[in-house]
């Protein structure tokens, strides 16, 4: 079980449910999101995973998801490091807006560009490229050394912070990564080679 990295996007948030741009706004999980977190923990336990350390963002929807998964795994109290480097992409002026209302205000094409391009940021916010610029150095400095030491690592974060990391792990181009959507509460299991490259990837589903 050495060199196992598990990435989980947080369960559905209250604002996901309401179709709002969330970004760095600190909102909780919906009832469905809580259920998704329990399901993720049960899937990991059923596969026999035991973790040595966990990482999460500074936002409560990610660390609530992590807490629930650790409860299901029977690993409450696991060493956990929280850092805003793993926070969701900052949507700037879009935060708190309904996505349909944003399309009416700026046009569907412009909102699509802000959401799905790699390097074009919404007003006052971050692009996926900007998000990667903080996620990847943090991964290489803090998370990868744990993996290379043979420890199993669980990361509970966000759609865009995890997409930035998956872009590196899967060697995806900017064109490929913008097409990738991560399901809420869905564990992605990576086994790494000794040099930190990806040996295998598995998605756990019920």
Please, what is the CATH homologous superfamily?
A: Phosphoglycerate mutase-like
Strand order of the largest sheet: 3-2-4-1-5-6
What percentage of residues falls in helices of 4 or more residues? Answer: 40-55%
Low-confidence stretches: none
List the secondary-structure elements in sequence, H or E: EHHEHEHHHEHHEE
What share of residues are in beta strands? 5-15%
CATH fold type: Rossmann fold
Report how far apart the termini are: 21 Å
Question: What CATH architecture label applies?
Answer: 3-Layer(aba) Sandwich
**Helical/strand content category:** alpha/beta
What is the CA-based Rg, rounded?
16 Å
- Chain-averaged pLDDT: 95
Largest sheet, strands/sense/barrel: 6 strands, mixed
Q: Which CATH class is shown?
A: Alpha Beta
Number of helices: 8
Number of strands: 6
Our count of domains comes out at 1
Name the shape in a single word. Answer: globular
Task: Describe what you observe in this structure.
By secondary structure, the protein is of the alpha/beta class. It has a single domain, classed as Phosphoglycerate mutase-like (Rossmann fold, 3-Layer(aba) Sandwich), CATH 3.40.50. 42% of the residues lie in helices and 15% in strands. The chain contains 8 helices and 6 strands. Strands 3-2-4-1-5-6 form a 6-stranded mixed beta sheet, with helices on both faces. The longest helix has 21 residues. The radius of gyration is 16 Å and the shape is globular. The two termini are 21 Å apart. The mean pLDDT is 95.
């Amino acid at each position: 079980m050495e060199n196992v990295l598990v990435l989980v996007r947080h369960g559905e948030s209250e604002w996901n449910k309401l179709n709002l741009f969330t970004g760095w706004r600190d909102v909780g999980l919906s009832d469905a999101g809580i259920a998704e977190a329990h399901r993720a923990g049960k899937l990991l336990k059923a596969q026999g995973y035991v973790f040595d350390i966990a990482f999460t963002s500074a936002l409560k929807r990610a660390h609530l998801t992590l807490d629930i998964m650790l409860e299901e795994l029977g690993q409450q109290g696991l060493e956990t490091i929280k850092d805003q480097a793993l926070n969701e992409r900052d949507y700037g002026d879009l935060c708190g807006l309904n996505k349909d209302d944003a399309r009416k205000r700026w046009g569907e094409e412009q909102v699509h560009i802000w959401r799905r391009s790699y390097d074009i940021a919404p007003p006052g916010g971050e692009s996926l490229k900007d998000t990667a610029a903080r996620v990847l150095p943090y991964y290489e400095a803090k998370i990868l050394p744990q993996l290379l030491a043979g420890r199993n690592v669980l990361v509970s974060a966000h759609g865009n912070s995890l997409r930035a990391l998956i872009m590196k792990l899967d060697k995806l181009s900017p064109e490929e990564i913008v097409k990738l959507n991560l399901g809420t509460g869905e564990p992605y299991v990576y086994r790494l080679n000794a040099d930190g490259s990806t040996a295998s990837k598995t998605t756990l589903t019920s």
